[in-house]
Amino acid sequence: MDGMIGGAASAHQDSFARDNLPPRADWPVFLLDRPDYRYPPRLNCAVELLDRNIERGRGDHPALVTPAETLTYRQLAARVNRIANVLVHRLGMVPGNRVLLRSANNAWMVAAYFAVLKAGGVVVATMPLLRAKELGQMFSKARITHAFCDARLADEARKANAPDLRHLVTWGDGALEAMCAAASAEFDACDTAADDVCLIGFTSGSTGEPKGTLHFHRDMLAICDGYGMQVLRPEPTDVFIGSPPLAFTFGLGGLVLFPFRVGATAVLLEKAPPEELPAAIERHRATVCFTAPTAYRVMAGLAAQHDLSSLRKCVSAGEALPKPVFEAWQAATGLKLMDGIGATEMLHIFIAAREDQIRPGATGLPVPGYVAKVVDEHGTEVPRGTPGRLAVQGPTGCRYLADPRQAQYVQHGWNITGDTYVQDEDGYFWYQARNDDMIISAGYNIAGPEVEAALLSHPAVRECGVVGAPDAERGMVVRAYVVLHQGQAADGATAKVLQDHVKREIAPYKYPRSVVFVETLPRTETGKLQRFALRKRAGEEP
Questions:
Q1: What is the distance between the alpha carbons of residues 517 and 526, in angstroms, rounded to a whole number?
Q2: Residue 529 and residue 522: Cα distance in Å, rounded?
Q3: What mean pLDDT do residues 285-307 have?
């Protein structure tokens, strides 16, 4: 591709990201006519999300609160500028270079992130638990030239195969801190185009080679001006808190971009397990919480032990929100969980509901500016009430980094998310399963998450995962892997009780014919249930 994207000349001297965008014909349709999503041709999202707060008189307002330090917007901007100067003038980064970031959620991670954006680089943020092999795939696929890393996590990064890496600088051991101390706190932002790539988000794919998703400077603002401003509707006085890693775009939006767009405050915790998050909410008087359904289920049981009265909005995403979890949280706090579905390919949430639109059990309606429909395998919309594949268009969309799988995700101009949904007569979308999580047993289509929700409504069940297990007679049977609450007997009698309970809750043919009691369930670093691991186990067990 040439240096023109969207009518504006790219600022990137290193054209790798631009050159590895999919062909234009393979892009989804982008819906950019709505006034909320019209941005000027020249745009640097770091300026809009950080520097604008200082211009608007928010410079002395807390931007980040962590156990180690609190930074105002002015203090954070100074650190960002120092890191940007280190990147450009000491480490030789040029616009378009890819910079890997590796850290838990803390102020240095955010500062490094914005420094890369401001200097015109391309961020590749990585989960702290990734190992050298996985990091090596990202180093190689994205041709990463620079890396910033928390010193506590540097060993795996140093062991990774990184053929293009020129500099790896750590913080927490004084290295980056010393460089910053000698650098200027002033930095002129790179004059990037709104359609310059600024982020390569690698999917937390369960199997196979990870896919890099390319996002532009305007995309970072679009999710703020879409879901953030029109569904979440934060205020400058809000205090955000949550558990998702900033390398996960759910966490990036929910814990940094959304609060920064309105000049609010973000509380960052390096570790935020559900057993500890309620105490942190109470301590910081947090008002907006982002975490996964599994965490809300645990937190609901702890709510009576903490003062959670400061909370006013709680967002659930990352995996389907079972109705029993919604009901437990509402009973414990009086708050309705705001469900939503997003994707790394779409950058953030694209179907959700404001508090006054919530229907328990439904994901919601398309975020203003997005459109969605349920289609068959040919891309034809199916009748309301009929399960099918979710298809979405909006101001953000999938552009994979040099990956033939682009043709699987984008079909006929629509983003095909890989989720099975039903749309009702009122336009609400109801999650059924991931497309590959549908269980076909004796000719019946059974959605694993629906069976999970039925099991979770029984007081003995702490967690569960439902998959199909091979069966000679039925092709597949429903198998439930169940974690019981302490004191419950993991025996045949309990299994029978749970099976009968499911038969009463949903159609009897959907009940789990096989119940396996386990101590823990496999989950990703972001809290998602790894059903692929359960499917693998089910395929190997009798």
A1: 23
A2: 6
A3: 94
Question: Which residue, 217, 233, 268, sits at the end of a domain?
Answer: 217
Distances (CA, A) of 259 to 246, 324, 437, 495: 13, 29, 34, 45
Average pLDDT, the chain: 94
**pLDDT tens-digit profile of 488-539?**
999 999 999 999 999 998 888 899 999 999 999 998 777 778 888 999 899 8
Cα–Cα dist 178/89, whole Å: 15
The conformation of residue 247, written as its DSSP 8-state character, comes to: T
Look at 304-313, 368-377, 472-481 and tell me which has the smallest mean pLDDT: 472-481
Tokens 């029978």 belong to 496
Residue 24 in domain: yes
Q: Mean pLDDT throughout 291-314?
A: 95
The CATH code of the domain that includes 470 is 3.30.300.30
Cβ atoms within 10 Å, residue 89? 13
The total number of structural domains that make up the chain: 2
User: Does residue 308 form part of some domain?
Assistant: no
Helical H runs in 86-206? Answer: 107-118, 132-141, 154-159, 175-181
> Does residue 318 form part of some domain?
no
Does 429 reside within a domain?
A: no
For the stretch 387-428, pLDDT in tens is 999 999 999 999 999 999 999 999 999 999 999 999 999 999
Domain boundaries, position 459: 442-540
How far out from the chain centre does Cα 277 lie?
18
H/E/C letters for each residue in 480-496?
EEEEECCCCCCCHHHHH
> Which of 233, 265, 66, 291 shows the shortest CA–CA distance to 300?
291
